[in-house]
Write a structure and sequence with these properties.
Length: 290
């Protein structure tokens, strides 16, 4: 089992012929992901990376049965690209784009609420099910198949956690980079729920950061759900000053519950194994599973 993406996912790339889309689509194809084509308006009918190019997402869904999309579209047009994917019938929409205006994402969130789809991101590294599908910008060689799921707001910490887990012989079921913007599609709690319900996932690594309530919501749900699987948690930004955005647009301390220390306390109170440093993630996962 896996969540969100697997070897059967039929993936299209929106912004396929641009420099970012071309580079990362090439990496995804090389990894073995089932990329069935891409979308660049006005370039329909051409071949790119030996894959068909379509003018619209709807065309790609109709012609090649696409069900998963990854978006490499500039910030000014990315919200439209997400809505086009949702309207076109894509089930899993993964948006890599950073810098989408918050006002645009408010519209996107309202638009996709009643659509049969799931949005991951924006401003995220994507999703990977090792050995099956890499739909994102993560270094595929770091990830090996195993029994630990990862949910993370941070791209680089996703890779770091995966590397540590793999080095301890455990491996990854699916790693989900949810993105660090103030408004995202799939929340920490929703991503954790997917992994809790995946029979192959035996433990979960949950990486958060300062700002917002996503980690606290997830922690309370995990406890209410009966702590079915061990969860190892890390919160980035322990030395961040209040009122200053750190890294991600959503990483800003707005109140006393937004600090790393407050979040770590909430996680611990809800039965999560909290680590002080990302260097402790791998060993802690090994400890809780043995």
């Amino acid at each position: 089992m896996s969540v969100l993406v697997n070897k059967d996912s039929k993936i299209i790339v929106q912004g396929f012929t641009g420099s970012e889309g071309t580079f990362h689509a090439g990496q995804m194809i090389e990894y073995g992901s089932n990329v069935v084509g891409g979308v660049t308006p006005g370039k329909g009918g051409q071949l790119h990376l030996d894959k068909p190019v379509f003018n619209t997402v709807a065309d790609a869904v109709k012609e090649v049965g696409a069900d998963t999309s990854i978006i490499f579209v500039p910030p000014a047009f990315a919200a439209d690209a997400i809505m086009e994917a949702a309207e076109g019938g894509i089930k899993v929409i993964i948006c890599i784009t950073e810098g989408i205006p918050t006002a645009d994402m408010v519209k996107v969130k309202a638009y996709i609420e009643h659509k049969d789809c799931r949005l991951i991101g924006p401003n995220c590294p994507g999703v990977i099910t090792p050995g099956e599908a890499k739909v994102g910008i993560m270094p595929g060689f770091v990830f090996k198949k195993g029994k630990v799921g990862i949910v993370s707001k941070s791209g680089t910490l996703t890779y770091e956690a995966a590397d540590q887990v793999v080095r301890r012989g455990l491996g990854i079921t699916t790693a989900i980079g949810i993105g660090g913007d103030p408004i995202i599609g799939t929340t920490t709690k929703e991503a954790v729920q997917l992994l809790m319900n995946d029979p192959e996932t035996e433990a979960i690594v949950m990486i958060g950061e300062i700002g917002g309530q996503l980690e606290a919501d997830a922690a309370r749900w995990i406890k209410a759900d009966g702590n079915r699987k061990p969860v190892v948690g890390f919160i980035a930004g322990q030395t961040a000053p209040a009122g200053r955005t750190m890294g991600h647009a959503g990483a800003i301390v707005g109140g006393k519950d937004d600090t790393a220390q407050a979040k770590m306390k909430i996680l611990a109170e809800n039965g999560i194994h909290v680590v002080e440093s990302p260097a402790e993630i791998g060993q802690t996962v090994l400890d809780v599973l043995s």
